[in-house]
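lol ok so funny story. i was supposed to be doing the assay writeup but got distracted and ended up predicting the structure for this chain instead. priorities right. anyway since i did it might as well share w the group, maybe its usefull for someone
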Amino acid sequence: MLLTRAVFNTDQVNRQRMLCPASELMRADERHYKDCLRHGGALGLPANMQHDMDRLIGWSRPLGLYIDSEMVRVLGLIEEPQTEQEKEVLAARAQAHWGRHHREGTEEYREELIARVAPADISDAHFLRIEAAVVKRKGIASDLYPDLFDPRTGSVDKDGLVDYRELLERLDPVQPGVFHDRSRQLLLFAHRFFRRSLSHSNKLNSNFLETFDSTARGNGSLRVRLRLDPDLVGHPASARSLIELEHWRGPLYNDDIANIPKGVSEHKADERTRLYEGVDRTQIWWKAPESRMVNGLGVDYRTFEIEELVENFSTGLGEQRFGCRYAHAEFSVVEATITHFDGAIRAYEPEQYLERIDTSIERAGKRADYTKVFRFDGPLPTPSWKRLLSDFFRGNNLIPEYLGAPNEVPEGPDVDASPLPSEQANEINLAALISLASGSLDGPSKFCAELYQEIADEVFPYIEIGVGEVASYLRTRFDLKDITSVGFGDGTLNLSRLYIGASDDLKSEFKKEVSGLAEMIQRDNEAGITNRAAIPLAWGNDGLLVTLTIAGEASKVASVLRELPSKIDPEQPPSEWIELLSSLVKATEPRQHSPVFWDGIDRGVLSISRTGNVELQLEMPDALMQKILSNGKPKISNTDHIS
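and the output, tada:
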């Protein structure tokens, strides 16, 4: 299994001008852990290529929320299978996840949906949770609303597109591409060809559908048409906006369309676009100026065609077929504006596609099943056309590239660059980590012996308690005679995880442990014994184990620990106090840009790495010492841990 650590999200304003507060990021983590406990499923979520739920690439699971003076980051681990067996395990895990997602996400709405679609037959229907809880069955929407799908009715053209203005008079838009029929209390949706892989598994292309709607509303002279989805109806009360944190840029090219040279240009995708978006190339064809008679008058115009050629099968088309986005426009030379614009999906069988991909667009002909999905007729301002064209081909960077948008650094996950431990250790001034795990704590406070040492072929657990005042204090606080304890003389303290036991007054117990540690760390720092420290504290909260680590320069760690009891209520979930903790970290350490300090995070803690030879102070139980001495001359190996 290939493992990649990454930053999944932050509490900063993103490129879609959205901000997720740290409390909400933390609350999502808490909710996910509890959901996994409730249903017994695997911790984490399917990892998919470029938000395409039909392109499974791995499994992502949370590692914790990392807090420093700059921001709060959600850290996670992405597991990518490398063997066939690992792929089978991943596929089964993802299938279980989506089955549960759709089952639980539609359960409370099913009876009402069944009643509202009556007398439609739903014996072979499926319930899905997408933009809303929906019933999916071939032709269910077109059976209930024939006047919005049947070309023989006045609102629908020969291509099956409904007049958008008439649609808005009858239905209320609730999201881009989602419409509410108040008479039947049902939702209708834009066609699935506006979804990635042309599949109901994915979110609608809200970029395009929002631009489509605003263009229609802002240009009253346009006749605007849209294809609806014949196979879905949804429950209005369940409607939720789906968020995809993908930045998509718009075009900035020259509006002088009349002088664009005739001919075909082909733009080949780079490796990143091929991998992430599944686009191989895009072909653009501007025809030479032509003339035709309209109302007895000659009209000069230019024709534009564009088609994207893809790498992968489109799962929404069923069997192995390739679905390619296609657009066509006409530009009036006299009016100097676009007068017609439509978009479609061209679906190819494998043999047809092999011929098409090696053929230029002007010689390709009509070898595909053609499904038109939208259309504009009338004067369409060039900037609006560019925006619509770019948004229809969302994800295809070759479109804004052709239209002249400036190059941008590709946006992707903030992946761990695996800095050297010595480099990383010197960069941390102050940071905190909140991690969660399932479980609870019984009994008094105690240390967690999760580290292991090997001496004379004997492997045994140990705890790190430091040297100086901290070690002396902890030996008086806890009975350590049956566990090996160590301290290092390198000025660094990586305290073993301290479990704060269950108590009728957890707040007082928390304050006692934290205040005592703060005082002793400060003394050791002033004496020059401890320069850097990582202090992980753990306690139970509503079925979860919460671990909070404070790490960095010892004086700053001590300062934060002193303030913690007034900022943190351990009887409340972390989402209730993470904002106060973040403010405390920022107040203690001036804002600075710093990389994530990854050491120890796989165990749910922060740990400061050591290099070179360091002095070790070790105290172990007599029985273990005698056993080691009986094995011969002791030889100490490097320490290790079990995650």
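Residues 409-426 have pLDDT under 50 and may be disordered. Residues 84-106 form the longest helix (23 residues).
back to the writeup now i swear
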